[in-house]
Design brief:
The protein has 15 helices and 13 strands. It has helices spanning about 10-25, 70-85, 95-110, 135-145, 155-160, 180-190, 200-205, 230-235, 255-265, 280-285, 300-310, 320-325, 340-350, 360-375, 380-409; strands spanning about 1-10, 30-35, 55-60, 90, 115-120, 150-155, 170-175, 215-220, 245-250, 270-275, 290, 310-315, 330-335. It has a seven-stranded parallel beta sheet, sandwiched between helices. Helix 12 links the parallel strand 12 (about 310-315) and strand 13. It is elongated and about 70 Å long. The protein starts with a strand and ends with a helix.
């Protein structure tokens, strides 16, 4: 049997879907991967695909639905489906999800083969509070759901909305991509108090941060959507506190944000770490995670911070509210105003957090421990069990289709 995984950018699979590859291979599938290998987002190259035993196929996916290249990608993928005769197709990301389902339906009509098509939406474009322009994707997604045998959602808001879609198969909810909490287990065994660990020496020396400064940290692509600029502007209002903000990631807005930092005179208060492969190691050296993103599905970066035991400051949006409870695991801001973020940071570092018997450091540690417990709900074994169940049900349909074809013949 052969399964095809489809994503628009090649780094998506090793970043988020490696475990699904393993599951499919263990179930006896030869796994193929269709993507644009010239567009690497998660990492600098495709070296993480090495050793995964994948059969790779170049498809010239583009991000914009209005690009003339969309028709080319559709033709390439349709030809691939006709040539390879896959038994299962699992697509991800908005544009590749659209193109893959359209191509699969065209081949289905042409050949009569009922190949199951799965689509995991890692955060639908339309959501409560989304800009009006985002809702143009609603009728598209609703229409394509009739060509989808398993529509898989990763947060509660998307899952509830999809219940009304005319899905050809079923709507499923999984708890994200699965957190590999084993990576953090060694730290859970140590007597680790946030803000007091000697392991912070590395990040302090690397960026010339004074020893008595606290560290705020973000992890994510440097794009408009991730909205790092809000926290940069908030730092201007926090100059009286000994804090430094470290941004881990790279992306098209990096030069713009660096210039903004220079214009604001914040070179000593905002540091750019670039793309970081060993995220848990650098998170461990921080005091608080901040995440002012405009839009999320179920952010892995936040879950990694929770697994390390960091308190989190983020905006009250879909995906974030699946993970955090205000004043339990950190603070939720009601908007993206820098002043609001500055207030939350100040509360985290200069107030007692509502209890006179608890110090600021103890309060942050309590929040971090709450996050460590909460993130267990999104652990890899939980997600893996659900995905195995989904794939197993699809395999049963494959076998039924094969039987029906044999009978008809």
């Amino acid at each position: 049997m052969k399964a095809l995984i489809v994503t628009r950018v090649s780094g998506f699979l090793p970043q988020f879907e490696a475990n699904n590859v393993k599951i499919l291979q263990e179930m006896g599938f030869e796994v193929h991967y269709a993507s644009n290998f010239n567009t690497v987002v998660y990492g600098k190259d495709n070296h993480r695909l090495e050793g995964m035993e994948l059969v790779c196929h170049q498809i010239d996916f583009e991000r914009s639905p209005f690009s003339p290249g969309v028709r080319k990608a559709y033709g390439q993928l349709k030809e691939l489906l006709e040539t390879e005769n896959f038994d299962l197709i699992h697509c991800h990301m908005p544009m590749s999800g659209v193109v893959a389902r359209m191509a699969a339906q065209a081949v289905r009509r042409k050949t009569g083969r009922k190949v199951p098509v799965l689509y995991t939406a890692h955060g639908l474009h339309f959501y409560e509070g989304a800009p009006l322009k985002n809702w143009i994707y609603y009728p598209v997604e609703r229409y394509l759901s009739r060509y989808t045998d398993r529509l898989i959602l990763i947060n509660e808001e998307d899952y509830k909305r999809a219940q009304n879609f005319p899905v050809r198969g079923s709507v499923e909810r999984i708890m994200g991509v699965g957190m590999q909490l084993d990576r953090f287990r060694e730290w859970e065994k140590k007597d680790y108090t946030i803000g007091k660990s000697d392991t912070k020496k590395d990040i302090y020396e690397r960026y010339g941060i004074p020893d008595n400064y606290g560290i705020l940290i973000s992890v994510g692509e440097i794009t408009q959507r991730k909205n790092h600029i809000v926290m940069i502007d908030a730092m201007k209002e926090l100059m009286d506190l000994p804090l430094v903000y470290v941004i881990c990631g790279s992306g098209p807005w990096e030069d713009k944000l660096k210039q903004h930092v220079r214009d604001m005179g914040l070179e000593n208060r905002v540091k750019f770490a670039g793309y970081v492969e060993q995220v848990p190691a650098i998170l461990r050296q921080a005091d608080c995670f901040v995440f002012p993103s405009f839009q999320e599905g179920l952010p892995v970066a936040v879950m990694e911070a929770m697994a390390v035991g960091l308190p989190v400051i983020a905006t009250r949006i879909r995906g974030i509210t699946d993970l955090l409870e205000h004043a339990k695991g950190g603070y939720l801001a009601d908007d993206w105003e820098p002043e609001n973020y500055a207030v939350k940071v100040r509360r985290m570092f200069s107030e007692r957090g509502g209890r006179s018997d608890v110090s600021r450091e103890q309060r942050r540690q309590e929040m971090g421990q709450w996050n460590r417990k909460k993130v267990q709900e999104f652990a890899l074994p939980v997600v893996e069990e659900k995905m195995r169940t989904i794939y197993q049900s699809v395999m049963e349909e494959i076998n039924e289709n094969a039987t029906d074809t044999h009978v008809n013949l």
